[in-house]
Design goal:
29 strands; Neuraminidase; 2 helices; 2% helix; 35% strand; mainly beta; five-stranded antiparallel β-sheet; 414 residues
């Protein structure tokens, strides 16, 4: 992700509205798509595995961004506990989690681990949380943060019976990963439909993945990890799912997919189980990767040999690489922020579309497949915001996090 310290614009006092600006309907790219073709089109599509026919999607409706709360600090993520409370939980980069209930921020932090979080204003800090799928029974919440040494730390905390606080002293560290640089930490945690914990790990930072971590299966960097935190293995507080893919004799068993640069935000479609990963590019392209629910893992998304559809710095492309479903050039932005497939009830015309944005331009787009299987990309609105993350509530409604500390809800426009 681009540095989280980029200057933010002033928070609006009225809803941000905008009609769709453009729609690009594109046929699936042939297998022999070349680097030249990729460079000529900043929105070159690619087919994706498809197990069922795509539903008919209605025309894109007008939407608006309705301010929910403001005055928070360096927002990184928003989620819910799945407990029927309707509360929202939002992470602040310095190491706090705040609770929003009935549209108001509860003054006392849900969790404060600023004493152990390292946040030098780049891409470090408290980056996301995920509540256990068995939260009603185990009262556990998981966090991904960088510690004072810059090491990625995945740990869990015990939550109070009322759901309003997590005990910092209850921390159990699940996994740590050394980071050679201060950027490209990934940071997303998400429990999949299978109950496994998925962990997004960036390539370790610097530029161009100088140590080629993303293609090195002996490293956890530049990967999607998949672990089972409901079981232990000796002193280790997680187990390896027996159906994780085999990347070879020297590979780490936690690996689910490789060849990723910095998939800062990823999500599962709550209706289909499909996985969308927004992978931040280097100097030319931002990409959206897709993994169908039928996947058994093992994908290689190509970084550092490929950026978007184009070979990177003379890298050799390979048919073994899983191409993105979409990419856009840096004439449209500089750092993709992944979102969610909308499955709420408030905006029926938005259902089935994957919403994502660019941190620098503030443009929000929507992707979906038409009946022929082609990916259609539509401009939802030009927000003018520095969007660090999207969030989803228990009902499937979506939110936008504006870096300086404002949360917006996506609502129907006029």
């Amino acid at each position: 992700m681009a540095t989280l310290l980029m200057a933010g614009c002033a928070a609006p006092t009225a809803p941000v509205t905008g009609a769709p600006r453009q729609m690009a309907t594109v046929a699936p790219a042939p297998a022999e798509t070349t680097a030249v073709a990729a460079k000529e089109s900043a929105t070159q599509p690619s087919p994706a595995p498809q197990t069922t026919p795509s539903p008919i999607i209605p025309p894109l409706p007008n939407v608006a961004l309705q301010p929910l709360v403001e005055g928070l600090d360096a927002l990184t993520y928003l989620t819910h506990a799945g407990d029927g409370s309707g509360r929202l939980y939002v992470t602040e980069q310095p190491g706090r989690v705040r609770v929003i209930e009935n549209g108001r921020v509860i003054p006392a932090p849900f969790l404060d681990i600023t004493d152990r979080v390292g946040s030098q204003g780049n891409e470090q800090g408290l980056l996301s949380i995920a509540f256990s799928p068995n939260f009603a029974q185990d009262r556990l919440v998981y966090a991904n943060y960088t510690d004072r040494r810059g090491t990625t730390t995945v740990s869990r905390f015990v939550v109070s019976a009322d759901g309003l606080s997590a005990n910092p002293a209850s921390e159990q560290i699940i996994l740590t990963v050394d980071q050679p640089y201060s950027n490209h930490n990934g940071g997303q945690l998400q429990f999949g439909p299978d109950g496994m914990l998925y962990i997004g790990m960036g390539d370790g930072g610097a530029a161009g993945d100088p140590q080629n971590y993303a293609q090195n299966v002996a490293s956890l960097l530049g990967k999607m990890l998949r672990i089972d935190v409901s079981r232990t293995n000796g002193e280790r507080l997680y187990a390896i799912p027996p159906d994780n893919p085999d990347f070879g004799p020297d590979a780490r068993p936690e690996l689910w997919a490789i060849g990723l640069r910095n998939h800062w935000r990823f999500s599962f479609d709550r209706a289909t189980g499909d996985l969308y990963m927004a992978d931040v590019g280097q100097n030319a392209y931002e990409e959206i990767n897709f993994q169908p629910a039928s996947s058994r893992g093992g994908e290689n998304y190509g970084w550092r040999l490929r950026e978007g559809f184009a070979p990177y710095r003379g890298g050799q492309d390979s048919p073994a690489f899983t191409p993105p479903i979409y990419h856009y050039g840096h004439d449209l932005g500089c750092s993709v922020t992944g979102g969610y497939v909308y499955r709420g009830a408030a905006i029926p015309g938005l259902v089935g579309r994957y919403l994502y944005a660019d941190f620098c331009s503030g443009t929000i787009w929507a992707l979906h497949r038409n009946a022929e299987g082609a990916w259609v990309n539509e401009t939802v609105l030009e927000s003018g915001l520095n969007i660090t993350s999207f969030g989803e509530d228990e009902a499937g409604e979506l939110y936008v996090l504006h870096r300086p500390g404002v949360i917006f809800k996506i609502v129907a426009g006029e």
